[in-house]
Write the structure tokens for this entry.
Amino acid sequence: MTATGLNPISAADLKAMILNRGELALLDLREEGTFGDGHLLFAVPMPLSRLELVADDLVPRRDVPIVLCAGGDGDDHLMTLGAERLSRFGYRDVRYLKGGLAGWAEAGFEVFTGVNVPSKAFGEFIEVQYHTPHIPATELQAMKDRGDDLVIVDSRPMPEFENMSIPGGIDVPGAELALRIHDIAPRPETTVVVNCAGRTRSIIGAQSLINAGIPNRVVALENGTMGWHLAGLQLDRGKTATFPALSDDGLKRALVCADGVAARFEVPEIDAATLALWRADPSRTLYVLDVRDLAEYEAGHLADAKPAPGGQMVQATDRYVGVQGARLVLVDDNGVRARMTASWLIQMGWDDVHVLADALNCGPLVEGPHAPHVFGLDDAAPEMLSPQQVTALMVGGGAIVVDLTDSRDHRKGHIPGSRFGIRANLPGNLSAIPDGSKIVLTSPDGVLARLAAADALLSGRDVKVLDGGTRAWAEAGLPLAKGLKDGLDETVDVWYRPYDLDEGNEAAMQTYLSWEVGLSQQIERDGTARFRRFAAASAAGAEGST
């Protein structure tokens, strides 16, 4: 693969950069589903379709070294457009992987499938390193049948829990476990069972409680809700049970546990003055990450802090941090969640992770959700239409709505008659729409549609944008349809999980779980991960890395 006018880097030189452990943003511009079919271990998915929406959050420093990658032959347009956009937005050190993924493989280097692979491989490493105890679904059911003293804590975010859960379980997202468990299971005789959808968050969640030193027996549910389903057991749907309010005694005990974890895993702490110096340092990439629950974040957070709920941060680090070797500062209200999360990032191999002491008193707090900076939005000025205007245009086929949301969300709810499309494929995919039809672009909030309108207008088509996107349509009381029919593109924009599929779920679950277990060996072959081995809880200090 060659990309005219761009600076290439060979596979061997890129691997040397990765091993050097300096700052590096390795960005894959393909759609997530295609990315999941094969990619470099530390590549961060940044689809060209969404680049303007996520680049500033993932890569905040403009002169950090960036290497773009894609599949190989046929992806020159991704490299060219991606580099052009990043350069226009102020990024100054942009190269691309010569030969793409194909060239990487030809050089004899490992290619990984799936998504969030470093985190998932880390979970398998932890289970082997610490012999994290687990039980199969049938044993848990037998314990429930006997009336054993137990609690089932689900370490996923509430939307995932609500979608499917183990009967009798409560939702306690990963970073909350060490903070909340003393109120959830105050009796040391109570067995604590930690589960997630598959393996990673079950393993990390259970080991978090074990590392915290709680007196209870703690086990991970082997293979999570997928293992439960494969055992022929029924899952609950629509449940919202969660943890009780934090008591004074629960917080006191959690702080003691977090102190022990911080000492064992050498978690450093900084003050507000140090953070101010780091904010002013142009030579390093800094992420200030608030690891609390999203509702707490929105109630008040530091102005430059981004939401990164701790359990999800460990489960999918590449969704929050796009620069390897960056400096991470974790923020919460009392230090428990920040220290627990930091302990895992340190074990994962992040060398510059710190907890901000007394974080919420280190500056004025800002209320409301995170509002990412969107590149190019000020330059996007298409004709905007209200939901009522779009409805009128659609009568008699006078307008076709193209939905640029991801295909998973399109299936859940879309404007009736709209057609799913991938923004990066514009304007080519519009050729399936008759020339005489007006085209109305939509996206969840209309932002991506506004950005995409400039791409679509290059085709000479009559393109407009639904003001406020599909959300505005729904808020206007207009109907939504489900499913996906007559899409303009294949659904390669999303990496579908086994439980997202309409059929073949069991086989897909078995394949997925086997894939997770096999990551440990592949990580060893790759040789670029630096997972750290720490001594047993009774000893101190690190023993090495892998």
User: Anything to note?
Assistant: The chain has four domains: 7-115, 120-261+527-545, 263-366, 380-475.
